[in-house]
Write a structure and sequence with these properties.
The protein has two helices and seven strands. The chain is an alpha+beta fold. The chain has a four-stranded antiparallel beta sheet.
């Protein structure tokens, strides 16, 4: 009878190998994803503004007359520089959207939950999303 204790079984090692490989693939995809060409700002789920990421600029986001956020762009990137919380002004102390920093890869996002703002980046290629494709002769 073998009473030798093993720290890892062969299944544990296999799981670790798969996790490390998956992490490596995910990092590779993020690292080599296309650069952003434009940023789309959604306010309350609707397109507020589409900003080309080709120059240094600042933009302020308003809901009516209420100031919500300032964003800064530079060629290929965007970030939130200041965010308010118009619902509960005393609670937006962490400014998670500001802490996100620069986003520059296609598909990255900045989210301000209290202000209902989503900023995401897209590449230069136009995308067509299809639910179904048919061919008729």
């Amino acid at each position: 009878m073998n009473t030798k204790n093993k720290f890892f079984s062969k299944w544990d090692l296999l799981l670790i190998v798969f996790l490390v490989a998956g992490l490596g693939i995910w990092i590779g995809i993020k690292q080599f994803s296309p650069p952003a060409a434009k940023a789309i700002i959604l306010l309350d789920g609707k397109v507020y503004k589409v900003i080309p990421l080709d120059k240094n600029a600042y933009y302020k986001i308003y809901r009516g007359d209420t100031y919500l956020m300032t964003v800064e762009t530079k060629p290929g990137a965007i970030r939130a520089t200041y965010s308010t919380n118009w619902i509960f002004p005393q609670t937006e102390t962490t400014q998670v959207s500001v802490a996100t920093g620069w986003i520059s890869k296609e598909g990255e996002t900045i989210i301000s939950v209290p202000n209902k703002i989503v900023i995401y980046t897209e590449g230069s290629k136009e995308r067509t999303l299809y639910d179904a494709m048919t061919y008729q002769n």
